[in-house]
């Protein structure tokens, strides 16, 4: 049984690494979070009810059409938040999923996050929140800002149970502001939506001199079988709700982000150790991971 589990894990990591045209360096892949959750995401890919391609046509998701039809109303509420300076980075290191983006100037305001509560969104964006409630497949939504000159490094998102939807609200309408998914580029345009699989390697850049604001949504991945869809729904409700992050006081902070605040502070010592001697740091890291792997396999 133990060797079966090891084999499943190894094969799952190989699947994640070799899917698509763009790959991480092997050493980085071994320590990437996508390797940790590889068996779960391999399950989602294997039973996906939509093609495994970097981009998907929005026509496959007709229930999202009201978002494009009402994009100007959505934009008006986003612009109001900009004036109030409510689209911002996390203030207390309590947004593990997007923490690395904040140093690049990326900002967000949560409208919905699975089953978590965000009273601030209902108070400040009532029309957009009401519209989102009419589309059950939208499991999470936020306004996301990418300022001029900002770049988000190449990465995979951790959960393959969802697909990503972007709706352009205030964009440069230029090819200088784009997202690259598995080597294919898309440039945002006002009022236009796009769907992509965020478990392919992707990165984004705003090389223009104008701001970019989009509606950013997680859409539940359709699965081929009803039982698989139920598993996906349950995992989203339990795992992803635990990753909720607040806009303001009164919004829900999930357990993962409560833990992340503690881990972040501990990580300061790790970063000091790495800055002191990077070679010793990497040797220590490999030794610890090797020790854990040996204990799992031979213990």
Automatic annotation (TrEMBL):
The chain crosses the membrane at residues 279-298. The keyword Oxidoreductase applies. It comes from the Bacteria. One of its GO terms (molecular function) is dioxygenase activity. The keyword Transmembrane applies. Residues 68-222 form the Aspartyl/asparaginy/proline hydroxylase domain. It holds the Pfam family Asp_Arg_Hydrox. Keywords: Dioxygenase, Membrane, Oxidoreductase, Transmembrane, Transmembrane helix. Belongs to the aspartyl/asparaginyl beta-hydroxylase family. This is Lipid A hydroxylase LpxO. It comes from Noviherbaspirillum pedocola. The lineage of its organism: Bacteria, Pseudomonadati, Pseudomonadota, Betaproteobacteria, Burkholderiales.
